[in-house]
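Researcher: Quick one. two chains, 752 residues in total.
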Amino acid sequence: MGEARQFLTLPGRFQMRQGGELQSPVIAYETWGELNAHRDNAVLIFTGMSPSAHAASSPADPAPGWWEEMVGPSKPIDTNRFFVICVNSLGSCFGSTGPASINPDTGEPYRLTFPVLNLEDVATAGKRLVDSLGISSLYSVVGPSMGGMSTLAFAVLFPEMARSLVLISTGARSLPFATALRSLQREMIRKDPDWQGGDYPLDAVPITGMRLARKLGMITYRSAEEWERRFGRERTAAERKSGDGFALDFEVESYLEHQAQKFTGQFDANCYLYLSRASDLFDLSDHGGSLQAALRKMQAERVLVIGVRTDFLFPIKQQYELAHGFEHAGRRVNLVDLPSIQGHDSFLADMDRFRPILCDFFNGDWQALNERCSAF
Amino acid sequence: MGEARQFLTLPGRFQMRQGGELQSPVIAYETWGELNAHRDNAVLIFTGMSPSAHAASSPADPAPGWWEEMVGPSKPIDTNRFFVICVNSLGSCFGSTGPASINPDTGEPYRLTFPVLNLEDVATAGKRLVDSLGISSLYSVVGPSMGGMSTLAFAVLFPEMARSLVLISTGARSLPFATALRSLQREMIRKDPDWQGGDYPLDAVPITGMRLARKLGMITYRSAEEWERRFGRERTAAERKSGDGFALDFEVESYLEHQAQKFTGQFDANCYLYLSRASDLFDLSDHGGSLQAALRKMQAERVLVIGVRTDFLFPIKQQYELAHGFEHAGRRVNLVDLPSIQGHDSFLADMDRFRPILCDFFNGDWQALNERCSAF
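Model:
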């Protein structure tokens, strides 16, 4: 498998929002398509918490990306027309500098000496990347989930950069229910004895804590409705053995087990802790004292907000709140309120509903888009 | 503090539904009020997973019970009129025989040698208790949450015993979403190294696993709406210290921490595992091949079903399903569909809504009750 990833080193000291700094951090990214002569056809994508910058395949790396159906030639974010950039968040572990990276000042991994991460830092790293590519105006910035909050941070810190925003299954802040769930995921990892206060060796990572956290993630990313349709009360194929009283009884348990096994080993535990907490710490109204003050700073002319009825990490009322706020700030806003049953993960799972919306948006077919939208 | 608990030993071998048996198990219970001359004024209460039989205070034990506002003289379940019995579930650890009890055959605690527990076993133990009190017809059997499933098991196994049923925030089976959450709670306990395959010493119980499981329980017992109103994004009083990057930031995290600390030490980990799994294993349609076949076996004339819109462990559609099914089976059914924001725990928290409903029901004021009910 080839390598499509590119790396940008930000020279000098990178100041973190909440204090502390990084020495010459690296930002990993991928691009698709070509920057046009006016340098004005770029689309920047911020990711959710766990994906890498590999949003889509390319000749250099033909492996399917996490948003393969959305990004590519003749796809909704059409790389025949747009120069698409996907950035691996600062603090992550897929090429960008994060807690698992070596601190050049010490020659040791940062681990918990990594400074507190905010999504504003993720946004600032994205801005430095865009600058380095010689781009001063983006057609759009797109972000699902945590990436949507990074997009909002980008738009409030660098208001002149984005001509439009696409905010998917996200919100202006984390609500206490989501914070409680993420806090518990972090505790599962920190309470795993193998976490060792963050100093685990790379050949003995806190697998148990990561697996539990991933399972809770899977439970909260989807919806009760979907699981009932998929699994019902189906029992696992294996006969229950006597003396094996707490083995997996139900298909839904096997599914979670399978998902957790896939995830483990991919993601560094300390990076997970930092990104998870950055999501909880984000509050757009920190920028000006109120949500409305923050939204008024942004200059994007057009905003597309997409939400899903069954999402309970970023419930639909958070997308209505954003749509209302942007409209109040004088922007052209489209809100799409989807009945997908796949919950928070619908932007990865219910492509038949998401594809046409982004297609209309990136084609500038406002009439077709309006017909898909909800009043708010 | 006095002892109001009484103990009944069931002599001989108690056969468990799914195989295995217990030697002379003990059932702990409390009673309030007096059995009348006709012996027909008894109300039996099955509890949720974690409470003891101490539903209400009494002269012998003045400590407030878990349903203190509901059970007592001139309270909704009025002990001036009714002889109220609350039973500690078989398999629990508050006086009834469970995995933490000594197996008389070995002199050692059962631990994981305790046979697989089903809610039908809990119901059968309740029946033996009622028999021992010389009661052959109960005014009502009442059960919230897991207790509602035990009530359904009781009603299908011993159809002639109950003249009415009160089913609160419960369902005819566990749905896969609830099973996934409970399965994860069990895994948190089992993955705690201190669990030691179930053989933990009593002075070194798996506290970490129990605390994590309790926190997840608290998250799922309440609702996102309630937490937003209660906590918003309030920060904890303590200033965040540098180098203390994963301390508790938000009030909602402190609240969970406090709740988890209260719970730990009260509940035996193995008992928790058995009762949690018994909830997942329950499916009323096992009794006759379909829900309708099971409901047709029951003889209770009147059924009150109460559900809460914000409950996502036993979502409101499960209470509608029960109400429809009972009506189809020819019973008089009242369904109350409550807008409480306290989620699954509303029957413990939103007493102002629950009290009048049970009041009308136990007063036999059907007209007043009808006015509180929803069409279905």
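The longest helix of chain A spans residues 176-190.
Researcher: Thanks, that's what I needed.
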